[in-house]
């Protein structure tokens, strides 16, 4: 009404009162009023209006001009996603018809959990961006989530059934009331006619029982439906309050010089996505190269399901803090190195070694068919990281669960050998020594080991703990038999004055029951003393490479088919006889 009055006053002063038809819709009147004033500004018709009236109109109509902007809704299509180890960049595109002048564009179908500082908007030529605002979108979340839509449909069905049940119950209750009224009326009208009274009583008893039982049965069904409705409503409320399903929207203020079909693109960074690496390591036999399948487990709870998007996995991370660092003094020190297989604390844990691989030769017997995932993946290296662009559309739902995709395959030539540490385990482990691992852009992650078509265990790749050569354990080989036994006949205890000298002798036997010769790296050790009163001497090492600082013994053996090799290890321990030596 206020807008209509303003328009009438303005038209009286400007001489438009005979030419303007008014609307009942306030928004239409707002647009009409602003268009009339805009045309008068162009034709300089405002000279007929008193100065005071001009000021009032300008004061009142300036905010109305904003309201008069046309609001246009647009659904942004998610086109591509670059997933980082911590975060992801989403890129959308869309098209919109813009009228000349200023318009408000509401862009739906974007993530509800984003870093607002990272929002970037681009528009086609001839369109100017005046403002960008991010809002949570609570209305479109229901429409975008098929599970919510299914629940809403189920609630409608249950509500309809519940209404029918209540109607049926009401009918039965009204029937019972009618029976009661007829019983009273019949008893009054018939007086003392006993025969009729007996008939009426029998009919009332049967019919009343039938109706009352029907009311009870309908009540039970009603209660069951009510519980079902309550459960559906609770589940719906839980989904709506779930941040994993929350959408967002951008409100764009755009200005176009003329009516135009404009296009726009939107990109932003969300912290609610990540990927972690995992691997499948395959080998057919010791004569074939290793096949390595590089996989990524993508997790996201951005509130937006990614449907048929182009994925890219990056080893870098979005730089939220770009402040230049300050260097401080850098100190180094010497530590005692541990002798162990890469990634292991002891040889018994050889199924937890590190695995890597690199190569380019394609073999069907290693990876599979000639056409591989490599045909659809390109690798782009920059100073900030490496990006694997996957040219296959993927679906990743916003459920905070890992979705694994394979994106790269490698083959690498490896040198195979066996390893055993009989002091801890009498098993022989097949190792694959791999070079040139640094040519791969590896991430830390688990690896499944498959040898000769059989899953042999899990491994772990950690590029931070890698040296020039990597040793990958492919599993245990039961055709290599190893024993270590103490030789009592060659072990003794002697007392010399106040000292006791003990001699320990062991025989290590290695039998190769395979059809081909093997190379075996055999490791054992003798004890070291931390007490000056205890003297330890290595008596017989059978030609082992001895590392005195650690007490490690290494034999590099070549064992022919069906051959048995014997290694003798002997050492003595001398200590005061009144001391108990721990650790022997």
Structure explained in plain terms:
This protein has 584 residues and is an alpha+beta fold. The protein has five domains: 2-68, no CATH class; 72-138 and 246-269; 146-243, ATP synthase, gamma subunit, helix hairpin domain (Helix Hairpins), CATH 1.10.287.80; 272-303 and 339-374 and 398-478, no CATH class; 481-576, Immunoglobulin-like (Sandwich), CATH 2.60.40. It contains six helices and 27 strands. Strands 5-8-3-2-11-13-12 form a seven-stranded mixed beta sheet, with no helix packed on it. The chain has a six-stranded mixed beta sheet with strand order 19-16-15-23-26-25, with no helix packed on it. α1 packs parallel to α2 (26-43), α2 packs across α3 and α5 runs antiparallel to α6. The relative contact order is 0.10. The model is unreliable at 18-25 and 332-369 (pLDDT under 50).
Secondary-structure map with pairings?
Blueprint lengths: L1 H13 L11 H18 L7 H17 L2 E6 L1 E8 L2 E12 L2 E11 L3 E9 L3 E11 L2 H5 L1 H45 L3 H47 L6 E10 L3 E11 L2 E11 L6 E11 L5 E9 L62 E6 L2 E12 L6 E10 L1 E8 L3 E10 L10 E7 L2 E8 L8 E7 L3 E7 L5 E5 L2 E14 L5 E8 L9 E6 L4 E3 L4 E8 L4 E13 L8
Parallel strand pairs: 1-4, 2-11, 9-17, 15-23
Antiparallel strand pairs: 2-3, 3-8, 4-7, 5-8, 6-7, 9-10, 10-14, 11-13, 12-13, 15-16, 16-19, 17-18, 20-22, 21-22, 22-27, 23-26, 24-27, 25-26
């Amino acid at each position: 009404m206020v807008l209509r009055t303003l328009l009438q006053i303005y038209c009286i002063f400007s001489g438009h009162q005979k030419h303007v038809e008014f609307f009942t819709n306030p928004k239409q009147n707002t647009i009409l009023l602003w268009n009339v004033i805009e045309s008068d500004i162009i034709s300089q018709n405002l000279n007929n209006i008193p100065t005071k009236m001009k000021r009032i109109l300008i004061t009142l109509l300036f905010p109305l001009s904003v309201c008069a902007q046309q609001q246009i809704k647009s659904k942004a299509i998610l086109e591509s996603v670059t997933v980082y180890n911590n975060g992801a960049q989403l890129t959308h595109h869309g098209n919109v018809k813009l009228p000349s002048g200023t318009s408000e564009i509401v862009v739906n179908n974007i993530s509800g959990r984003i870093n607002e500082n990272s929002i970037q908007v681009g528009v086609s030529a001839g369109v100017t961006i005046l403002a960008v605002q991010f809002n949570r979108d609570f209305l479109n979340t229901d429409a975008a989530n098929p599970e919510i839509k299914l629940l809403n449909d189920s609630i409608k069905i249950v509500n309809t059934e519940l209404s029918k049940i209540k109607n049926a119950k009401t009918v039965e209750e009204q029937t019972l009331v009618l029976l009661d009224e007829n019983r009273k009326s019949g008893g009054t009208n018939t007086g003392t006619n006993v025969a009729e009274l007996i008939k009426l009583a029998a009919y009332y008893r049967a019919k009343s029982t039938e109706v009352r039982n029907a009311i009870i049965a309908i009540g039970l069904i009603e209660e069951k439906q009510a519980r079902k409705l309550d459960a559906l409503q609770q589940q719906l409320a839980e989904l709506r309050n779930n941040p994993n399903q929350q959408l967002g929207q951008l409100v764009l203020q755009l200005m176009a010089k003329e009516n135009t079909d404009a296009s726009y693109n939107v990109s932003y960074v969300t912290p609610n996505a990540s990927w972690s690496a995992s691997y499948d390591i395959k080998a057919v036999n010791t004569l074939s190269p290793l096949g390595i399948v590089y996989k990524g487990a993508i997790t996201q709870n951005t509130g937006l399901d990614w449907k048929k998007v182009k994925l890219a996995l990056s080893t870098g991370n979005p730089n939220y803090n770009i402040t230049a660092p300050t260097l401080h003094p850098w100190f180094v020190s010497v530590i005692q190195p541990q002798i162990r297989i890469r990634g292991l604390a002891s040889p018994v844990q050889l199924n937890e070694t590190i695995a890597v691989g690199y190569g380019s030769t394609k073999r069907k017997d290693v990876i599979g068919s000639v056409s591989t995932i490599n045909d659809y993946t390109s690798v782009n290296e920059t100073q900030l990281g490496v990006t694997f662009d996957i040219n296959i559309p993927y679906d990743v739902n916003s459920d905070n669960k890992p979705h694994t995709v394979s994106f790269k395959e490698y083959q690498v030539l490896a040198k195979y050998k066996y390893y055993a540490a009989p002091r801890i385990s009498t098993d022989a482990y097949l190792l694959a020594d791999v070079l040139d691992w640094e040519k791969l852009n590896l991430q830390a992650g688990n690896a499944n080991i498959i040898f000769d078509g059989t899953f042999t265990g899990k491994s772990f790749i950690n590029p931070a703990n890698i040296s020039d050569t990597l040793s990958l354990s492919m599993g245990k080989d039961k055709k290599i038999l190893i024993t270590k036994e103490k030789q009592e006949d060659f072990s003794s205890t002697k007392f010399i004055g106040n000292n006791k000298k003990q001699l320990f002798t062991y025989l290590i036997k290695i039998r190769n029951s395979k059809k081909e010769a093997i190379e075996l790296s055999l490791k054992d050790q003798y004890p070291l003393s931390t007490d000056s009163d205890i003297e330890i001497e290595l008596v017989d090492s059978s030609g082992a490479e001895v590392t005195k600082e650690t007490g490690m013994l290494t034999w590099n053996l070549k064992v022919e088919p069906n051959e048995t090799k014997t290694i003798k290890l002997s050492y003595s321990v001398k200590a005061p006889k009144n001391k108990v030596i721990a650790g022997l």
